[in-house]
Write a structure and sequence with these properties.
By secondary structure, the chain is mainly α. The protein is built from 10 helices and no strands.
Length: 203
Amino acid sequence: MSRTTKPNAPTTARIMAMLRLDRPRFPRSTALRVGAPETHLLAVQSNLAATYQLVGRQEDSMRLKQDVYSGFVKLHGEEHDFTLIAANNYASSLNGLRRFEEAKTFLRRTLPVARRVLGECDDTTFRFRWNYGRALYGDDCATLDDLCEAVATLDDTERIARRVLGGSNPLAIDIEKALRHARALLHARETPQPAEDRAEEVD
């Protein structure tokens, strides 16, 4: 099944819904029965990864999301909708584990694909850019350039998401919160430190 030969619309909708799940909706054993389509199995693995995340098994969740992404790359290639959703899920887990360098490296490779294939106004593209902004400002070792890029990325993303999704959309609100956080970090970095504080640090 390639980008040019997709499953029927209801099947595609179910798979994409499973990939975006926040909690399980069906037993894993049901989809892992003999003969289940590989795409469905990968969607179930993504669902299981979401379950691991909910119960605090973050490392297990991240590894499973990485496997799901690799599986979709092998099955459909890097530009397929399912692959891009799985890529974003994996990047989100890396951020959650504060593995920001890995997240930045991964997103710098996959985000341009999402923007080219899905366009700037797609929900998944918004999530990619949101995760990239978080990876940039979340690192304790973030440079001034990282913070400036985070603000620029999130500002542009928030503007487009608000126009496309509406200001009350939960994703648009999350992006706005991330933008405020990035701006605060950038402001703190750019604000000159009082002389007395610098003297205390030297002492």
